Amino acid sequence: MFGLRSLFRSRPNLASQNRARLNIEQFKCRALPSGFGSVLPIAGAGQVIADFQHIRSDVQSLTRLVGSQASGQLATVRADVTKLVADAVAGSSSAVTADLKTLSTDEAALVKSLGSPLGGRAATIFTNLQRDILALNADVAGLGTTHRGHDRGDDDDREGHDLGQTGTVIRDLVAVRNDLRALTGILGSKITPAVTNDIKAVQTALGSVIGDLVNGTSPTKDLTNLNTALTTLTKDVGSGTPAQGILTALTNDIQKLTTDVNALTNPTQAALARVQADVKSLESALGSNLSTAAKADVAALDAAIAALGADVAAGKAIATDLGNALTSEFNLLRDLTSPLPAGARQSLVRLAADLVRLSPVLSV
Is 11 among the domain residues? Predict the structure, then answer.
């Protein structure tokens, strides 16, 4: 009834690193995302996501290479990269130019400290890293336009396809960036020193969250700082001002960013939550007017999802639970009478897709 295949594509010009990235899975004729985010209707967003993933991979490779050697210099480089990515996402090209000079200086110090042969290998990683940062800077600048400034062969920009949870987070970051720009613009000359400092605090916290994502560290503390800075900003701007609508949008976008970053850093829990929501939506669409066989299938599905939730929480293997849940769903589809109630077919397809995403074999 359902088919599944995975498409991999390697990154051009990086044969020595032999890196490959999972693109999308095909669920019969329907494209399924490799993460858990929503469709990104922003031209060029796929390239930004690919750039971000490349940078994260570069940092991880460098961290593995350096190990315990030159840890202080490595921390300096990682801080440089964090600022670079934050400035690129913020669309600050002049800051990126200055940041790259700082990074180059710190890179040279690290390479020299490592000596041969590690220094040479680190230099190669740095070459890739700088190229990826420049690509990110260019692609962020082109978000929302149809022009594509460069083509590395990445086929990520697929309109109508889900670009994964990383894509959802990138979309959130861009939304927050745009909100802050709009807020500064609407306040104009009336902006107070306190509000100026508050906006800088939000931007700093946002950059720290980006750094956490790049470096693979927990974003919990920085997300808290981001929301605290937002609360202070909202208080200092006050109510009843022309900026109120933008502040509301900023609040909503930061809340969504917080949720999506947590989902990105804890994908199993996020996927489980989606499966549980899918089941609730499905059963609501089906109603109670079901055959005896279909009611039994619904009960079996509920039991399988309950077992899945318990095993995810306990950190146990979930392959059997997934199999039971998919079997129950397929049995339900067989036993339902046509025509299906409104929304039921979409809920069935979405549930099967989200169950597949939970599979340890296909997790990204």
Answer: no
